[in-house]
Amino acid sequence: MPDLKKLFVIRAKDFVKAGEVSIRVQGILKGIGFSPALIRRASVCAYEGEMNVVMHGGDGALQLSVDPENITIEIKDDGPGIEDIELALQEGYSTATEEYREMGFGAGMGLPNIKKNADSLEINSKKGFGTHLKICFKVKDG
Ligand SMILES: Nc1ncnc2c1ncn2[C@@H]1O[C@H](COP(=O)(O)OP(=O)(O)O)[C@@H](O)[C@H]1O
Ligand SMILES: [Mg+2]
Questions:
Q1: 3-state secondary structure 6-38
Q2: Which pLDDT does position 140 carry in this prediction?
Q3: What is the number of structural domains in the chain?
Q4: Cα angle: 97, vertex 17, 92; to 5 degrees
Q5: Most exposed: 22, 30, 31, 59, by fewest CB within 10 Å?
Q6: Ligand 1 center to residue 29 CA distance, Å?
Q7: Three-state SS string across the chain, please?
Q8: What is the residue range of 92's domain?
Q9: Pocket of ligand 1 (CB under 6 A)
Q10: What is the pLDDT along the chain (142 residues), one digit of tens a residue?
Q11: Predicted pLDDT at 141
């Protein structure tokens, strides 16, 4: 299987295009022929990470890398960053505004769901310096 690397731009506050990057990621993974369960887990993570950039972050990008052993999704943005990562990882914790909650966001389940669905998750973020998620999936079981 050839190695693959693709970069997609994500724009902050662009709710018209929000979600398109994770749909592209899902399409690529389907095209490669990964199992539906693995594609679902990766797509959930891509979507939650993408929406967090749109809602909470700044302009950013998602990079999808595939090699024979791993699917890696890195999501970076240059937004305000996360002040307390442990807190942000707790189920139900959200700083979403009333406006976003009315749009159906802000359940505070995005980062917990990424953590649950990924084989590994690294979060690098600092207030004022943006956010970087590195999300990895093992291609083979066991
Ligand atoms: N890219 C990001 N930039 C800044 N803050 C973020 C980012 N992603 C997540 N956060 C912070 O972590 C919190 C929890 O995120 P999440 O679990 O996805 O819940 P929700 O998006 O519903 O608020 C957010 O409310 C926000 O405060
Ligand atoms: Mg979220």
A1: EEEEECCCCCCCCCHHHHHHHHHHHHHCCCHHH
A2: 86
A3: 1
A4: 35
A5: 31
A6: 25
A7: CCCEEEEEEECCCCCCCCCHHHHHHHHHHHHHCCCHHHHHHHHHHHHHHHHHHHHHCCCEEEEEEECCCEEEEEEEECCCCCCCHHHHCCCCCCCCCHHHHHCCCCCCCHHHHHHHHCCEEEEEECCCCCEEEEEEEECCCC
A8: 4-138
A9: 48, 52-53, 55-57, 77, 79-82, 88, 93-96, 105-112, 131
A10: 569 999 999 999 999 999 999 999 999 999 999 999 999 999 999 999 999 999 999 999 999 999 999 999 999 999 999 999 999 999 999 999 999 999 999 999 999 999 999 999 999 998 999 999 999 999 986 4
A11: 65
Locate 43 and state its tokens: 């797509």
